[in-house]
Amino acid sequence: MLKKHNTSPNFVVEQQLAFRPENTGFHFPSNRAFMSTLRFKTTINCGGCIKAVTPALNHEVGANNWQVDTANPDKILTVNSAQTTAARILVAVEQAGFEISPLS
Fold first, then answer.
1. What DSSP assignment string belongs to 23-61?
2. Could you tell me the mean pLDDT of each successive run of 10 residues in the chain, 104 residues long?
3. β-strands 11-16, 2-8: how paired?
4. CA 89 – CA 96 distance, rounded (Å)
5. Interatomic CA distance for residues 82 and 34, integer angstroms
6. Contact present, 96 and 52 (Cβ < 8 Å)
7. Which residues of 75-104 are buried (b: 16+ CB within 10 A; e: fewer)?
8. Which pLDDT score is estimated for 20?
9. Any long-range contacts for 50-58 (C-beta under 8 Å, 24+ apart)?
């Protein structure tokens, strides 16, 4: 990111600012390397169904980490998460009242 500092009316200094985690003394782990994608066949087939299952899935994997393809005949649920298992997704969706089975 470039930041401009106006040191006088006729002179502009551009200074490149770089954030360097190694200079902070903190370790910032990357979960992206451990992210997995899980896919399931479901009976989640409409907007009302998605609304009903949203609290359970958001709690289990977080908002924006899952989606349902209701246009697909198998109503495919895709979950991207580094912190859950297929078994936990199965339980969450079943408790919300829907059928679900893992895809190979």
1. GTT-----GGGG-EEEEEEE---SHHHHHHHHHHHHHHH
2. 50 44 53 77 96 96 95 97 92 97 90
3. antiparallel
4. 11
5. 6
6. yes
7. bbbebebeebeeeebeebbeebebebeeee
8. 53
9. 52/96, 52/97, 52/98, 53/92, 53/93, 53/96, 53/98, 55/96, 56/92, 56/93, 56/95, 56/96, 57/89, 57/92, 57/93, 57/96
